[in-house]
Write a structure and sequence with these properties.
Two copies of one chain form a homodimer. Chain A is mostly helical. In chain A, 77% of the residues lie in helices and 1% in strands. The first copy, chain A, contains 16 helices and two strands. The model of chain A has no long low-confidence stretch (mean pLDDT 92).
Chain lengths: 326, 326
């Protein structure tokens, strides 16, 4: 993973610089400071890195690629600002969310203007790529909105199921990573089949990432992830573990899970009981296997690509995910 | 205004059809029905008409123009959905707003997806026009967000002033009409100076429209406008009338206005007292003059254009505004 580590460190600095620079496109906007705050909240910058690595895997990085990469990161950040409103999240990455800091109305506007800013960065792409980039972008945004809407209805519906969940995370998390991969491949001048493969790569790591996220909610380092363990259970989220348990465990074990999810407030003892069911019932292992499976699919998407630093970095990115180093 | 009436009737049908057609771009989106609902709420379709007339004033309408027109109307509708959340508006054009009908979270997503849908329609424009159209669009969205943010802070700030108000409405209402005019001129193949003039035309009718709106709040037909007279006073909105009163009336009269605006709940008697101050103090007349002034500026923007049905229709559109037939 030498290439991944080296390249991602190098490009992250570049991405941060370009994010800050993009604020100039907002002129004297009263929302500029808040958007700068969103950028300063940090993040792993997985999506723009994916765009850049994808471009390098099909050809080479160029001016268009970094514009596209910054655009996709801004787009992702816009979705986070609006998601945080919808999810009533007080913090993200240990920092106060925009709607808590500045109010819901400002947060809605911050998200809206970030979306326009993302398109603004995309508009800097050269003529050869502009239309295709725009298509990928539009598709990505539409799907992300669908994913969030499905997430909303999943949480309210009694009839939630694993296929519905996978569809939801494919859209909510997969779609933007797919867009990031495709965008990089298009801007790097790749042929159509490579664009599709790098899109699938993004989708597969996206699904892996989301299932891992559900697993880390229970098994992760609370301090490192900035949220208490078992938060999904406390919030009665119908995540991968919950739906897998309902799908594969016996009535008694399902009863423990369902009992907790029917409570108004879930106690620590109940969270622990559900956790034990997930652990001892093989649900956590199953999630781990699923993460490995989607990661393997992502790696398979890269097989036909000739050796390059970009390909190496993409492999590194996918692997770092399962090794939880990222 | 023959051309305006005839052409606007003709094109409105076309616009409605194209709005409905655009829903197909959403595939099986769970938000599709809500977006269809937003379209069905109706409206005067001023912005897409402006785009089409502007194109006809510089050359002629073509396939790109209708795509651009529909895109700008969808964009406008997206801003209304989010504005209604921010303004806590229960109804719009006599119909239940999206966030009341389907919840705030859905309404946020509906707006977000409509924005992507607007860009999707814009993307159908041919290669010659795509980049410029995209620029105009991005600029429009950024300014509208600024305008809404300024409106928010204006309502909270003690130091609100007429220049701040005009800046706010220029952005909140003027910017999208400016974008509509520019977009039509670009898509119709007009030269740069005509693009600018039609942008200014849009801006000027936008400002006129907004000041008229403030005036009609007090003087309009409550049934026709679907809201009670003096709603702005009840909601203590710092509109044109309020700021003009503060700027130009004596202490006693200003005192009546300020007293009402300091109340938690403004009674009907207090609304009537403020209305009398506005009427007798020449504030309503002043608003009327301002509307005429901006309309005259809009008409002046058209002076150098050669005679055409498009130019006639634009003149008709501007005039219909002050004659309150629109």
């Amino acid at each position: 993973m030498r290439n991944f580590t080296e390249l991602s460190e190098k490009y992250r600095i570049n991405i941060e610089e370009r994010l800050t620079e993009s604020l100039q496109l907002l002129g004297g906007s009263p929302l500029r400071e808040s958007i700068g705050y969103v950028f300063s909240m940090g993040g792993k910058r997985v999506r723009p890195l994916l765009t850049i690595f994808a471009a390098e895997a099909v050809g080479e990085s160029n001016k268009d690629v970094i514009n596209g990469a910054v655009a996709i990161e801004i787009l992702h950040n816009f979705t986070l600002v609006h998601d945080d409103i919808m999810d009533n999240a007080d913090t993200r990455r240990g920092k106060t969310t925009v709607h808590i800091k500045s109010g819901v109305n400002t947060a809605i506007l911050v998200g809206d203007q970030m979306m326009a800013l993302a398109y603004d960065c995309l508009e800097k792409c050269s003529g050869d790529h502009l239309r295709e980039a725009l298509r990928i972008f539009n598709e990505g945004v539409k799907e992300v909105c669908d994913g969030q809407a499905l997430d909303e209805s999943l949480s309210k519906s009694a009839a939630s199921s694993m296929p519905g969940y996978v569809d939801m995370i494919s859209k909510k998390t997969g779609a933007l990573l797919m867009a990031a991969g495709k965008l990089g491949a298009v801007l790097g001048g790749g042929p159509e089949d490579e664009v599709e493969l790098l899109g699938s790569f993004g989708m597969n790591i996206g699904i892996a990432f989301q299932i891992l996220d559900d697993m880390l909610d229970l098994e992760g380092d609370a301090e490192r992830f900035g949220k208490p363990r078992g938060l999904d259970i406390m919030e009665k989220k119908k995540n991968y573990l919950y739906l897998k348990a309902l799908e594969s465990l016996d009535e008694t074990k399902v009863g423990v899970v369902k009992a907790a999810y029917q409570k108004m407030t879930v106690t620590e003892t109940e969270v622990a009981a559900v956790r034990d069911v997930y652990r001892n019932g093989g649900i956590v292992d199953s999630a781990q296997r699923e993460v490995s499976e989607y990661t393997a699919r992502a790696l398979a998407n890269l097989e036909t690509f000739k050796e390059s630093d970009g390909k190496d970095a993409l492999i590194g990115l996918a692997k770092s995910l399962v090794q939880r180093k990222f």
